[in-house]
What we know:
The chain is α/β, with parallel strands linked by helices and 252 residues long. The protein has one domain: Alpha/Beta hydrolase fold, catalytic domain (Rossmann fold). Helices cover 33% and strands 25% of the residues. It has seven helices and ten strands. The strands form two sheets. It has an eight-stranded mixed sheet with strand order 1-2-4-3-5-6-9-10, sandwiched between helices. The protein has a two-stranded antiparallel sheet with strand order 7-8. Helix 2 (83-98) packs across helix 3 and helix 4 (143-153) runs antiparallel to helix 5. The radius of gyration is 17 Å and the shape is globular. The mean pLDDT is 96. GO terms for molecular function: hydrolase activity. Keywords: Hydrolase. This is Alpha/beta hydrolase. InterPro entries: AB_hydrolase_Est10, AB_hydrolase_fold, Hydrolase_4. Pfam families: Hydrolase_4.
Amino acid sequence: MEYAITLEVKGLTLRGMAHKPVSDGPVKVPVAILFHGFTGSKIDGHFLWVRFSRELAKQGIGCVRFDFSGSGESGGSFSEMTFSGEVHEGKEIVNFVKGMDWADPERMMLVGHSMGGAVAVQVAKEIPDNIHKVCLWAPVGNMNKLAASYFEKHPKLPNGNVDLDGLELGRGFYEDLKGRDLYHDITAYTNPVMIIHGTDDQTVPHEYGQKYYDAYLNNDRGIHLMEDVNHVFSRLSWIEELFGHSIRFLKK
């Protein structure tokens, strides 16, 4: 069963979708919470999150996917979006999902792509006892460098923001990230982690995924490098491999 959900965070409405597996009776199920990447949405390119959610439901795993504020159908402006703001929203989403009547609060799992992967890492670090597993798809580790490049390469607006290919990216996004080490203290989270990264990722080179793997030295951890695969997994065979590996990890 799929149905729309909303959540209010700091006066903004986050809009999402819930995918409840078919079950007999009032059974609580594990839930994967999906975090989209920079300029993404709860649908994402080639409907990646929709397809993954439906595959998870077939396997008896519930799924919740929200647009972060300023993205997709959620309230707010993209120009006001910051990394720290998405981390805060991520924690609020976890608390919301824990209260759903069919969700098992002991089996909350995070799946994040690109910047959404970095958000998932920070959420798990800040509320480690609430997260059962973390699965990272091409997790960004160089977001401060990417943010700086956006402000160097794209047209400046009079208010100090930039025109990012038709989106207004706020200066606050850069200021929030410029001194931040995305790997700092992430080992506060000690539960299982899986990293999946393409070796031909030109946006976030797979070395950043490897660095996350290396940082989680004492976790039950895994890394799966997909040969010659790009940042957005844009072939059917790549998606099949991505989904299969992720689902096996989440079900284990």
